[in-house]
Structures are given as C-alpha cells and as structure tokens.
Amino acid sequence: MDCSNGEVLFWVGCMSSYRVPELAKSMMSVADKLSIPLKLLGVEEGCCGSILLRLGDRRGALQVARVTANVIESSNAKILVTHCPGCLRTFKLDYPQLGLSLTVDVKHSTQLLADYVGRAELKPINMRVAYLDPCHLGRHVGVYDEPRLLLRSIPGLEVVEPPESRESSLCCGAGGGVRACYEELAMAVARELLAYFKFLGAEACVTACPFCYYNLKASSEGLLEVYDVLQLLDMSIRGVKS
User: Fold this and answer.
1) Which residues of 186-219 are buried (b: 16+ CB within 10 A; e: fewer)?
2) Is the pLDDT of residue 108 over 80?
3) Of 63, 129, 51, nearest in space to 90 by CA
4) How far, in Å, CA of 208 to CA of 110, rounded?
C-alpha cells in the first residue's frame, strides 16, 4: 500500500484530543518515523456521532454524522485511519446503517501501521505484557491480529495471552457509558482485570483503545503498568524505555 502522497486522514477522536493526548502524539511520532504522511482536520474534525448512537439519540447522531461525512469526503483522502475503536465501529458499521456511505477506506491505526512496521529498526523492550482486546475493535470490527503483530515485532517483548482473549476478551469496565455514569464500578472492574493479568505473570497491560487505556491507567494504583500499543511501538522505534 502506497501512502506517499499524503492521502491518509488521521481522525484523532475526542479521547485522544482531550483525555489522553499522549496517544495521538505517539501515533504522529510513529507515522513520522515510518514515513507515513498524515492529514489532520484540526478544528474541523468535530464528532463521529458514536456517543449519541450509544445513548439512543439516532436523530441527533444522523445530524452529526452527515456533517462529519461531508468533512471527511471533502478532504480527498483515500484512507481514513483512527486509533479509537468507537470511532472505527461508527464509521465502518453505523454510518452505512444510517444511510451514509464513506468512499474512503476506513482502518484502525494498527492495521495501517502493520503494513509499515518493517521499515523501522526496532529497539528491545524487555517486558511481559498482557494484551487486552478492546470490545469495539475485536468483537465488533474483527481486528485481532494487527495489534499482536505490532507487539510481537518488538524485540524482547513477551506477549501473555490470557485464556479470555480475542472473541472472549474481558471488559476494561469503561464501555457502554459505564465510566461516564458509574465511575466507581468502571474502576473496580479495571482493578480486578489488572490484578488478574498480574496473576498471569504480566508486568504491564497493553490495549489499543483510548477508552480502555484511560480507565485502566486511572485505576491501576500501582498494580500494573498500563500502555497502549502505539506507545510501546513509539518507544521501541525511538529506543526509549518510557
């Protein structure tokens, strides 16, 4: 796949714009090191409409989605890439159900980067990590292999596969509006998950979703280190431990 003409539009998403901007920074850093020019919408990005859909406001979501679809199409990008599985699911599955068809090829960041990681000279990160499959990314959209491919491309990184993974993956506690409405419950679920991963011998939990990362990191309380795939890949490319 040739993206040398800057035809890749990076949809940052609300979480990586406001809550966990370090993930957007890692994405930009990795793309730069792999010579993948990314377009950004900046203040024109707006909202994908996912939250409105999850709350049941289909009419409001359609209004937002129409504006967003027009902005995306006007960018003349060939590929739309996002790191947020919620945005990804919305663009790939929900927009068609709303009667909106994007002409761009919609990808998760790990799908895009998996095609280019061979360009990088990756430095070792000696760590045992458990990978958590995000709900929207895995069960909803079927992206399981690319995050693992990126992690296993890092020398020294050992990926622990919990018995409950892929289609049977456990929940981080933040999905479905739980974090927004029942914060203590969401954090309790996250702590239980991290304790389980630690029991399995992992030194860190890794995910590929801003929502998972945010809730797990806020709930970790020293149980385990929490990373995103983008962060570990960025660290490996730059030769930085943390």
Assistant:
1) bbebbbebbebbeeeebebbbbbbbbbbbbbbbb
2) yes
3) 51
4) 8
Question: CA-to-CA distance for 208 and 227, rounded, in angstroms?
Answer: 9
* 2 pLDDT higher than 50: no
Nearest Cα to Cα of residue 159 among 200, 107, 189: 200
- Alpha helical stretches, state H, the chain: 14, 21-33, 50-54, 58-74, 85-89, 95-97, 109-114, 145-152, 178-181, 183-199, 210-219, 229-238
pLDDT in tens, 191-202: 999 999 999 999
**Residue 81 burial by CB count (10 A; 0-12/13-18/19+): exposed, middle or buried?**
buried
Number of other residues whose CB lies within 10 A of the CB of residue 94 = 21
Is pLDDT at 181 greater than 90 in this prediction? no
Predicted confidence at residue 3, as pLDDT, reads: 43
